[in-house]
Fold each of these.
Amino acid sequence: MAVDYERSLKRAWNYTNDPKRFGFFLLLIILTGLLFFAPYFGGMYRYYSGNVNIAANAISMILLILAQALVSGLIIHNFRFPKSLDRNITEIKKYYLNLVLSVIIIAGLSLLSLMLFAIPVFGLFVGIALIFLISLIFFFIKQDIVLKKFNVEKAMAEGWKRFNKDFLTIFVSFILVVVITVVIVLVSAIPMILLIASMITVVPTAAFAVLVLTSIISLTLGVTLAALLGSALITDIYLQLKK
């Protein structure tokens, strides 16, 4: 089935361009960031002095997985049912565990693929190819879990079936989402790039503080925009393929 990408982009932008919705998910992503860095707050010196706190790393990754599943699930469900945020929140318990499992499985498969980089010559290319393949096969896995209430096993099987049936559509959609996301994040990271550059030169303390604050705000807004727009775009394409 042909996908109307222009329609999907317009719908995704209209969904994202809502102050209340953007503010709600911005708050969620800020809380996610705080949770991710919270385990390091008590041992910041030890961590950055080279004594890596394994427990802090593990806790941060667990919190990040839990938060990522929550945010992505809410965006997908809210895009499908935009007028009922209360319903979006109460529906979480029906799909949350499967979403968490899907994030863990995909992250695990990607990590195994990264380990192939250690193999000389061909390892890098094989690892990148596998990560790309995993991303395509499971491109709509979260939508299947949230909107169809599939368990992880069924969602993965459906992903493989759809990959074989709609490969070109999934490929084009993946490239489109990646390009949009990368552009948004890069633009929002400009203050961070300037901040890093300022560390090489002599910059007044006040100016440095402004750069730090601007970098954090800009990057947080960019990540929120990329998360909302990207998930909404994928979900609209998914809904078109379902028809």
Amino acid sequence: MFLPSMRFVMRIYWRQFVRNNFDKSSGPNEEAAMKVRKEQKRLLAAEIGAAILQGDYRPGEWLRQIDLEEAFAAKRFDVRSALTQLAASGMVSHVENRGYRVAQPDLTVVREILAIRMLLEVEAATQALPNIGPGELEKIKQTQKIFEDAVARGSKADQANTNAAFHDEIYRHAANQSLARLIVEIRNRARPGPIALWPSNAELQRSAAHHVEIVDAIESRDLAALVAAVRRHIVESGANYPAR
């Protein structure tokens, strides 16, 4: 009876010894390592998410893991984990057997909201035209030039902000300022991403050309031409649609 009892006591003692001398020293280290690994994955997801938010990847664009590995100097497993986290957050979507792509809004909804924008912005431009004198026109031309400079050498954020500033400078002369504020709200809701993004430099140049048409119509006091230019700009701007 003594020996089995002694073995039992020794097993307990040995487990306690291991727990005290090995688990205590290695446990926190292991936990810390796990925490670091988790934080690294979280940070990578945040880095990729930030790149999406600033327009490095357009809505609907496919995210190739090998490209992300190179762009973020990350391992494949960590990139895959980050994409899984972003998919859970809704920022990207996972398509089985194809991979991950930046989430994009429903194209039907985008078109419906653009139709609303067209109604509102045509009305705002119509109201603004009688209130735009030489001084007001000069400020509008300045915002047009600033956008063109952003097209030539600015960042995506610069392009988005100066584009919005151009339109806001026109619509702030509308008699109904609630209408002008509603336009900003709807414009932000209609946008396929956090900021306005153009799929190519050619699309940026097209938007800049539309701005010239709008300014020319204002300067010539041609309401019909202004209405047509505003409509064309909303319908044809590549920034208003998610990537195909």
Amino acid sequence: MSIRWRITTIIAVFTLIAIIVSNVLLAYNLRHKDIAEAKRDSLKTAELIRFSLLSTMIRTGDYDEIAATLQQLQAGRNFRFRMVRHHHVIKQHGIKRNEIPRDDLERQALEDGKVKQVQDSVNSLRIIYPFITDKRCGKCHVDLEGKPVPPGTVNGLAVIKFDLTERQKASEKVINSMMLSLTAVVFIFAMLSLLMVHRGVIKPIQDISAAVMGLQNDNFEINLKDYPTRELRIMAGEVNRTAKILSERKHEHERMIEEERQRNIELKKFVQSRASALGLEVGSEIRPIIGRLTSTFDKADKAEMMATAFKYVTYGESKLVLPTDPELIPAVSVYLGELMQSSSETLKRRTIELALDEALSNAIYHGNMEISSSLKEDDFEKFGEEAMRRMGEEPYRSRRVVVRYEFNRRGAKFIIKDEGAGFDWKKYLSKADSDGDMVHGRGLMIIRALASKLQFNESGNQVTITFDLEGDNRA
């Protein structure tokens, strides 16, 4: 899956989750808020009904007038009303319209005189409102013993049942409308976020990816823009620099091939002219020779050819005379290591390069320049400054390092001699054997670990390093 579709999928999933969660929370909160408001409104209506009925009963006590009052109150209000009488009221006035409690909640309200609210169903809310006597009620109502009821006695209940169907339908319309609006807002926000992510992240990454793929296909004409995001800017910059380097190398390679081709043309002309001068015709016998002389090989082909030819080398030797210049150390180490490139695997070549690098460093820095190794450990920056200074001073400047080497398919020997005063190599080697954590002399330990044999002359300004190209190297 591409990063574009992956990010799009992630945003789509989170958007869907956000829509579902937000809509559920919105609907839940609005419905609970609506129920709470319905309860408050119903309680106020119940208080009004109770007050109106109580006033009518105190004033007239006529049931027909009470019924007329209820009809007036029900106009515009969707509720049903029922009276409940306490035992002493039933004993005094009897039961007129089945005014008895129907459940435990109503019986409890008759005993404790507290207002009760209960939602019998989703669309039905019941409020139980007690009629509690005051000092005026004792004139008309008596208890079970026939005495006037004292103030605070529950005479009965007003049970008012409200139908919330229409109100909830209206609320559902509002809730659905708000949910739809919220969904639209979240969706638009997700689309804008996706657009911003596409422009700010996906598109740049796609451009960088296309550029990298282009590098694999030798397309180095790349110019990625400077993106505002730090990470993208770093990646684009690295790709641009890589493309520039590869382009320069490609042009340099093409230039070298062209130069080689021109030299081959000149060589071909020269061979043909010499053949003509000798009275030879450039026929089928001469033409293959000219073709081989003028063949062009790239670096990999030459390395492979050298490796093939080296298999048949029985012996080789040479000598290098180097000035006191530390910058030559890596170049000479690699050069000498490359002489072994076919007789040993890469690991052994790198081993030879590393050991020779250390030996040449000792010869130039500590031998010809006579800089103490302690200075290198204590202050590396000062060590470098001192080396630069002594490169231009006598007698250090005129000193040379002589490198002799000889090799065959079984092994290689390198003799490195400087023109310094030498050093007590026996002391260093004995200390290295007894104290593996010593600071100075680690270079010798490295060479001993990498070479198969390590020898010094008596003064210590010449070292002979031997490598076994067939077995393990361990001095």
Amino acid sequence: MESVGLGAGGRWWEIGAGHGRTAQDMQEVVGPSGFVRATDKTLHPGAVVRVERHDIVTDPVPDDEPFDGVHARMVFAHIPAREEALLRAAGTVRRGGGIVVEEMGLYTGYVAYSAVDDAQRLHARYSGALREILDGFGNEATWARQIPRVLARAGYSDFHVEVHTETWPGATAGCELLVSVSDGLRPHLAAQGFGEQDVGRLHEMLRHPSTRLVANPLVCTTAIRTGD
């Protein structure tokens, strides 16, 4: 975020703040003379900073705009009116300010290795079922590629895109996140032909110490507002 102006005295809006850890890091950078407005549609217990409830689609934008910058991580892809929501957020930034939007890329994660039998095919089946479920919820898998086009409509330029992925060993936080997600989607997965036995085998694979899972890529787009 420093590349688009996060610094001492800055005024930033953190959208989709979750437990507030990123907002906390941002507050340390802007210091006592700066300000970070942290919001999320759903409030999470145990947040490390004050996070305010806010729906980027339906609620008015914060009245302390314009901001020096906005950061949003995995907020817009699942919103049917994603373009309008991003334009609302982008419109709160002053001219010369910056925006950072992070979204998941296409479903290209895969099992690099696992001693669990048929792990690669099992994960591929799960990924296919998950994509069908998320698409049914209104998610747009190619959204990350469209972000610069949308931001250009709000007067942004100087785009920079970085793609990041990493390898998660079995039973570590990344794999446990997939365990949690798949556990919460059991009925939806079953409707896609990925049943209880499949979920059990998936969890076994994700928690096996030999497993090495290459995560889906995270696409980070930054831009500067140079016009209206």
